[in-house]
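Subject: for your reference before the review

Hello V.,

The reviewers asked for a structural picture of the protein, and I figured it would be easier to keep everything in one thread rather than splitting it across files. Below is the amino acid sequence we used in the manuscript, unchanged from the supplementary table.
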Amino acid sequence: DAMAAALQAVEVLLARSVVEEKGWHHGAGGDHLLDLVRGCPRTEDLATCLEAACFQADFVPLFRAGLLRLKPALQGTDPALSWIEKLGSIAAVEGGAHDDADVRLGYFLVAVASLLVFASANLSGPPPGGDLSEDPERCGSQGPRLTKEEAAELSKRLVLEHTSVDGEYVVGKPELVGYLCTASVIFKKVDLCQSSELELASAPWWKLRALHLHQKLLHKNSATLKAELVRTANEISQSLRSLDEGVWGRECLAAAEIECAGVMQTYQLAQEAVVFIKRAGDRLGMGMKATGVMGKRTVHQVDAKAQMVVVTEHAGGGAGAERDGRRRASAEDLPRDWLLEGLDQEDILLLPKLEGEEEHMADLTPCEQALVLVYLVQVSKSQAKTEIQSWEMMPYCQCVFKQDRPGAFAKMAATLHAARFERERNRTRERSLVRMEKLVEVLQLPQPGAVKRLPGIFTVDFPPLPLFHKEYGEMLIAMAMVGAALVVFEKYEHWDSLIVCYQLLQKTAQAQKLINDRLAESPDDPRLWCALGDVTKDDSCYVKAWERSGRRHARAQRSLAASAMRNDDYAAAVGHWELALALNPLNPSGWFALGYSYMREGDESSALRAFTRVTQLSPDNAEAWNNLAALHMKRQTWKMAFAALKEATRLRRESWQLWDNYVEAGLMCGHVMLSLYGLQRIAAMECCHKVSLSSLDLLLDVVSRVKREGGGGGATNKPRGANVNEDLSVLEINDSDEEEGEEEEG
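And here is what came back from the structure prediction:
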């Protein structure tokens, strides 16, 4: 019983330290949990390590404590093997069923500490230092550190040999990648949940975090990781019901639901994400709604106008006292204007000035702030991208900005979202770049320290630093700062973007020389061969990339397919796309290009399957829905065409071509009122003169027939196959979206 209580205390301390803000342990039983760990002879050595990890963000002692427990299993391994190979070999031999509780606990501690080391270095910052080594084995043995050259060579080898999944490689150059490989190997090969002596309830949760972070680093989504992550998320959802909320904490269990929702959002599983978000809100007793409040949004605004705000509501009002207590316990936390100071407010205010603003504010914990941000992502993914979307999404960011004590990582994520939204508006484009520059600066500074950035590191959606800097570089290019972007891309080894910069500067020869120099150092790196092919336009480079990767680099086949399409060789393009998609089928753009190639080859059935696959993977792809509709129209399967066009027009409402097809398909299905609505949409556009005469002719034919027959829908002589399913005795054009949502009959 003492051992079980101590192990549960270890799990709870680790789980809550990355969810709740600093100071939670003083008033929430944290000291009692540490006493339980000290009270068990088999875990007493972990108390100091847990204090360092949970309350100082120093994970090296915890890693070494776990490695000490793994020594019996590591003693028989071949010394010539690398650390990851040794770990994989003992995990394979044991088959994940080691009966020694200390060894299994060692696996768990090494995996969790490794994941936290990697996440701290590649998600929240600040840059790693101290005793950390690129080689986890040296970090554990306290041996001499690797030289800079040795560390770089080890990192390249680990990236090429242990991070590729389904033919997709990591983007850029992550730091301390050996720790991610360590966590991934353990969670994939060791079953930490099944043991007669040791029960680790949080092991699937940490596995979800490791695999999801691995997925974020990859160039494209992986089918293998998707299957494992979705299965693990559903397993976590079931296991949460048996955990004691009084021990684990309400916020900790809600964070697990939020992280599962984030996984679903990564793979465009919108309905599943909504379920997890609702569960998290119910567990926190928190709801939110967008509403209007009178206020001023610009500097020169005189009269107050309705401003959109996000209001949070807490069931029973019981959460306020708890949050007030936390405010007093953390008075030294970040100021409210952190990451906001110095931003331009000459035109649009950073935060709207609202009437009775204090009434619409609630002090939110880091987990509640994470719920606001995951809801923001869900709303933005479920809406069509329009000019007003950025205005509708900003209130969610402002809800975090208005916190008196914002969580550091939540504030960083809200700042990134705000920069993305402001980039879409001319009047705030420069301010969006300043926001990004502030984030770049904060990620390199030692303050605020890692312990303040730790809460929400997995709960809040924030791109790994290689992808963040890629996004920053792309923003610099959009601002015509190509030279500055080139420095960013070269530092983080974003070769594709680097080539774009050199091409914009008309210095392709320098790009080729740089890549050749890197190839001399790493001749087996398929990413470099693909980059060289992009510069030289030589398909043989892609072939070499394919061969050097052991026929596992999907990007090489995608490049060969794109080259074949440029040369109008669609038969060859089909072959290359099929090879690439066989490795990684979770690539909507690949399926789209394959469908187009099938169309050019005259294979309509295969094209239909390809475009259907696109809409399944990326439901917000308007072009895919349009092509799907065009194929059905060509086959005269009008109901299928009209259903596809409903989705296409929902996503791209400004395209008169889509609305024209919508009118024709609607008439052929007998939905005359919906077709009239489509004509009204076209008439409201400047290009209304481009409406198809055949659609108007068909409409007049249908209407005149119905009028002759007295408005009935049961006539036998139906022109051109149109089946009138609506009562047209009274024709009205409704200037709203209600008609569009009418259910299709039959």
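For the response letter, the relevant points are probably these. Residues 444 and 716 are 75 Å apart (CA to CA). The longest helix spans residues 101-124.

Happy to draft the paragraph if you're swamped.

O.
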